[in-house]
Amino acid sequence: MRQGKARAVPSRNPEWTEDEMILGLAVYRRIGIGSLSKTRREVLELSELLNLLPIHPPQYRATSFRNPQGVTRRLNIFRELESGRFRKGYAKYKRLLEKFGADTGAIQNAASEVLAKYGHIGA
Prior knowledge:
Elements: H1 18-31, H2 41-52, H3 68-82, H4 91-100, H5 104-117
Helix pairs in contact: 1-2, 1-3, 1-4, 1-5
């Protein structure tokens, strides 16, 4: 039996897709601006969900792929933008905020569509 080369684990994770950002924004809207934490149940559930979804193949995922700390950092981008802070790399998050505004119903519907696209139910 031939042994293949061990696959190298990437050192960086892939950029967040719009689908992932929509799911993140939906959680951010549910949690609210003041209570983001890597130990919060909703953050842990989003981290688990993002790891289950087949958006990024396993060979492109670093060991820290969508972990609770990274998810919290991404959700904090929405908070920073709503506080008037804009940094390099935030443009796609800003566009998403502008697209949905404060319409929680629209973002929850969009999140449900993302989940349905990947065969998951609920948001």
